[in-house]
Amino acid sequence: MSTTYTKPLPQPTALSTPFWEGARQAQIRVQKCHACGHTQHPPRPLCGECWSDNLQWMSCSGKGQVFSYTVCRWPTIASFKSDAPYVIAIVELPEGVRLTTNIVDCPLDRIRIGLEVQAVFEKATDDVTLIKFRPAV
What we know:
The protein is mostly beta strands. It is 6% helix and 36% strand. It has one domain (17-135): CATH 2.40.50.840. It is built from 1 helix and 8 strands, in the order αββββββββ. A 5-stranded antiparallel sheet has the order 6-5-4-7-8. A 3-stranded antiparallel sheet has the order 2-1-3. Strand 5 and strand 6 form a beta hairpin. The longest helix is centred in the first third of the chain and has 8 residues, at 17-24. The radius of gyration is 16 Å and the shape is globular.
């Protein structure tokens, strides 16, 4: 894809690589503890509930609800200036985790807490796909 992507990109670590590989395959992947059933994001080496290291990656439905949001009208990073205003949101997935993301393809006056949303996958580069959300149909 384009090498002209000018915005900051995530820098996957050994721990977060399965999440980002999932995004490249149009999937949201989070960790699930096989000892207690807890799901978590961001990824950690141990379960945040029971401290087990028996964690596996699971795919999520891609559905969610806006838990919280803000409209960014004055970006602090110059490369986002042409996008303003844009929505930064926390989306809660039915699998029990929350993701910080953007809401796209949605008029600002339609954004609200509780809005049902669906994941969309934006290929930023050949190596990085970003997970964003738009209103569910």
